[in-house]
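User: Hi! Is it possible to get a structure for several chains at once, not just one? Here's what I have:
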Amino acid sequence: MYQVGNLVKKLSDKHGRSRESIMPILQGIVEKHNYLTDEAMVEVAKELDISAAEVFGTASFYTFLDTQVRGKYVIRVCKTITCSMKGKSEIIQTLEDMLKIKVGETTSDRNFSLIETNCIGWCHKAPAILINEIPYTELTPEKVVDIIKGYLHK
Amino acid sequence: MMINLNINDQKVSVPKGTTVLEAARKQNINIPTLCNHADLCVAGNCRVCVVEQKGARTLIAACAMPVSEGMDIHTNTLKVRNARKHIVELLLSEHRSDCTKCYKNQKCELQALANEFAFGDTLFLDLVEDHNYTIDRSSPSFIKDDSKCIRCQRCVRTCSELQYISAIAVSNKGLHQKISSFHNRPMSHVVCTNCGQCVNRCPTGALVEKTYIDQVWDAIYDPEKHVVVQTAPAVRVALGEDLGYDPGERVTGKMVTALRQLGFDSILDTDFTADLTIMEEGTELLTRLKKVLVDGNKDIAIPMFTSCSPGWIKFIEHKYPQYLHNLSTCKSPQQMFGALAKTYYAQKRRLDPSKIVSVSIMPCTAKKYEADRPEMRASGYKDIDFVLTTRELAVMVKQAGLDFRNLEPSHYDSVMGDSTGAGVIFGATGGVMEAALRTAYEIVTGREVPFKNLNITPARGMDGVKEATIKIEGCTDDWKFLEGVELKVAIAHGLTNANKIMKLVKAGKAPYHFVEIMACPGGCIGGGGQPIPTSMEIRKNRMKAIYSEDEHMVLRKSHENPDVIAVYKEFLGKPNSHLSHELLHTHYVARENY
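Assistant: Yes, the chains can be modeled jointly so their relative placement is included. Here is the combined structure:
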């Protein structure tokens, strides 16, 4: 089993152990593990000598620092006005049908999570989604099927 | 440097760095506040204290704005009053206002503001119904009700600044912002020490002690039950505040009468077991010193830490479990009392211990937790059945309709009711140390401590960490090994200060033999169960009252307490005897730091 403690130590060595290092360290963990486990947050608290509640408080402020189980690929569907008007609902419907999960859930193989997000700045090419850090825009249900198929075969 | 400004067209001159709020108070101009608290850093997040600054685009928060030259402040304009009204209404829109049923009814700072600014119809929708709030009753000491929380963050600042724990922090944002433990775990399963300092500072009913008043009434009215009550030292100098007296009034005699009139069968004193603690803990300290100094035993942990404060015990269990061996194994006075009530006291009074209900009145919420610890059943029963805070006792006095002010003072009952001044000062920071030194020095040298009138002044006062050195000279034959030893002691109150000492210990830089730690600022007089509000001034008044109580006692050294002498003669044998260890000593548990 992978020891999250080693990763936290490495990240702390890199970014420092003062309070303000907490953000890059948490981002580093999410980059590697998709979300923050309780164990990881406790390790960060230990390393920076702050309380675990403070680490959780910071993480929970940022939607991209998830504290719930997330799959290898986190699909974020933009839920704001432009994307809604341009067919967000169909996109979500397609994703739910393909992955057999609802918004907020993670597939049992821990490959995909499906969540909604606030504006990601692609209104001019709506509707848009993010898969991890890659944006996909001007989507149709057909395009979504092709994109997800690509990930399924990765 | 002085800064000149105008507040409500009055000229004010205050030192640089003063806030607008402080400057206004100096002129007796009242600006309402909510998140502001004298013991805590400025937060500026409730906005109730907004005032108008001529020339500024927006209103400013008086608590957070430092004065500047030529400022023209107005605290009572139409704009200010409308803003305050809206601010209070917005706070209320996210606050479950079941005021008539709330434990904090009439003692709630938000309610008081609503009464001034936000009565009648409101422009804002009630948002409480739509929220899925948590009410956490998992701790035996307090209840955390998020539906009443207005996120002023006094509790968060208290837990971080005063107690160095941060068991709670602000989580999420916007509408979902809340005060959370680590990953919203139950408070009983996180690093919380149950000290109740947050409860003492919460302006609403979001954090309140878990009350056992009804259970105690039930016991009192159960003819089968013999209900004994003990009162902690710090209660007698603070109870008055909840019953119409100014801070610092000693109400010991009236309190005893009140307890008798409430229907308790026997009114006894925690001071008795405070004195007993000195005998046990003092002997333990001298034994440890002998093992270290004479036998050269390197396994004996020095410095020895006091163990009276259950908040401190939980702190070290969570944060420094590698130093649990440094803790005295003595139970706290409350728990020593509990163990003796259902053994020694029961035998002497020919009572069936299963019929005894043992109640304690404490300045403390952590004592509720302590009484629930599985280790605290040495008598074969739950040693202490119910713990009430000073505040809860005041509620019972009111419920019973007693005219407290006109009660005739009376004395504690006998068998475990005698006390000395040394037991009384357990209620203030430095008091346990002072009491221990008064006895230990005399045991070792046969003479009184070399301080005028037995007042060991270096142990007293509000400094966060106090240190003292006492040179031991003229030892009796039994204690020759201590001749010339400079006994080094330290005292800390408030867990942030305790942490400073623990950091020294960890770094190997703590030269002390004996360290007293109390979890709350000022010691028990500033405990989480004491009357609200609290401030440095109030704590100082209570402290003065404690030392005055000590001065008025005939006996002022623990080893002279006749009940203590009797309990050793008739029951325990001698300090640290086998039976003492069974009943009066305990062990500790290493816990996780989150």
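Residues 14 and 24 of chain A are 9 Å apart (CA to CA). The radius of gyration of chain A is 17 Å.

User: Great, thank you!
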